[in-house]
Amino acid sequence: MGKKRRRYEQKTLREKKIDFRRHLRTYLVMCAFFIVLNLLTIGSIGWAIWPILGWGIGVSMQAMSLYGPLADPDDIHPREEERGTALPDLEDEALELRELEKRPYRDEDLV
After folding, report:
1. In the chain, how many domains are there?
2. Is 110 contained in some domain?
3. Does any domain span residue 95?
4. What single string gives the DSSP state of each residue in the chain?
């Protein structure tokens, strides 16, 4: 098992969902970029459909593993169990912002 996979498996469900949202945002921005680039160069959507579909398969599999039929009902890690009940929405947003501040990059750097 690789280091990245081990590190991903150790994340809490909340951290995995934050990663998914970040992945989905990047995917949507890149889809728009591919379409605009394709329209400017060819004038129609030709080759852009292939990276969009290929990447979309990965995004959809990640979504199904968190929210859909592939979701693990026992995907609660000890840190979540210690916390007990779910945090209110405002506290979740504050925690997500703190997580984003810890990143060594900005979303703009990826585009």
Report:
1. 1
2. no
3. yes
4. --HHHHHHHTS-HHHHHHHHHHHHHHHHHHHHHHHHHHHHHTSS-STTHHHHHHHHHHHHHHHHHHTSTT--TT---HHHHHH-SPPPHHHHHHHHHHHHHHSSS-GGGG-
Q: pLDDT for 13-51, tens place per residue?
A: 888 899 999 999 999 999 999 999 999 998 877 899 999
3, part of any domain: no
Residue 44: inside a domain, yes or no? yes
pLDDT tier at 71, thresholds 50, 70, 90: confident
Query: Which structural domain range is residue 60 located in?
Result: 10-73+80-101
pTM of the model: 0.61
